[in-house]
Amino acid sequence: MSVLNIYLLRHGELVQTGVLSGRSDIALSDKGQQQMLARCKTLPQISQCFSSPLLRCRAFAQDYCQQYGIPLQLDNALQEMDFGDWDGKTYQALWQWAPPQAVPESPKNPATLGDFWQDPWRCSPPNGETMADFSQRVTGFWRYLLAQLVLQPSANTLVVSHGGVIRYILATVLGLPLPGVNHMTTLDVPYGALIHLQVSIDEQGHAWPKLML
User: Fold this and answer.
1) How far apart are CA 57 and CA 53, in angstroms?
2) How far is residue 56's CA from residue 61's CA, in Å, rounded to a whole number?
3) In the 8-state DSSP scheme, what is residue 76?
4) Starting at the edge strand that comes first in sequence, how are the strands of the sheet with 2-10 ordered?
């Protein structure tokens, strides 16, 4: 049995705070850059890195990988959820916003921010991504990564991504109910958070990930 490591790194603080960043390509603040650098000082030698292509993840991943000669792959599946019309808006404005006609029963109809947090599987951001689509792409990446580690074991993999993506991967590893909202309300992944997952590959080629505290 071989034992491998995956490190999930959330981007640091952004230059624009108090907004729902989503797909908005907002840069890291100086503090955000330092948050990520500080976390990465604790890492062992990384053998490969995957990153969201959004600037707040990509810029750091490119600099870090170039410095240490690490192969880097940008993957669209690691982007934050697309919040559609809500992207880039302040939370204050979003809590006050109401659609002309909210119909929570359909994921294609506009919902309020409160509707979304209470039941994201039925209520989607206007002109944004449904939770089902988000789930499908993040699950697809996670399965791809585990399959790759089975075929081509890589001792230490770094994944640079966003809060929503990392929470969903953690929910999968921890076996939280999905569809559900527990991963959104009970898992705190602050700016610059670094999470260690250990993956055991058994003799049958099955991957068994677990959270390391």
Assistant:
1) 7
2) 9
3) G
4) 72-74, 48-51, 156-161, 2-10, 194-201, 207-212
Predicted TM-score (pTM) above 0.85:
yes
Please give the span between the terminal C-alpha atoms of the chain, in angstroms, as a whole number: 21
Q: b/e per residue, 48-79, with b = 16+ CB within 10 A?
A: bbbbbebebbbbbbeebbeeeebebebbebbb
Cβ partners under 8 Å of residue 145, min gap 6 = 6, 50, 157, 159
Q: Are strands 194-201 and 2-10 parallel, antiparallel or unpaired?
A: antiparallel
**Domains of the chain, start order:** 2-82+129-212 (3.40.50.1240)
φ, ψ for residue 122 (rounded to 5)? Answer: -110, -25
Mean pLDDT within 137-154: 96
Strands (E) across the chain are located at 2-10, 48-51, 72-74, 156-161, 194-201, 207-212
Question: What whole-number distance in Å separates Cα of residue 181 and Cα of residue 192?
Answer: 23
Residue in this structure with the two tokens 């690691």, named with its chain if needed = 78
Q: Is the peptide bond before 179 cis (omega within 30 degrees of 0)?
A: yes
What is the number of alpha carbons within 13 Å of residue 2 lying toward its C-beta?
16
63-99, pLDDT tens digit by residue?
999 999 999 999 999 999 999 999 999 999 998 876 6
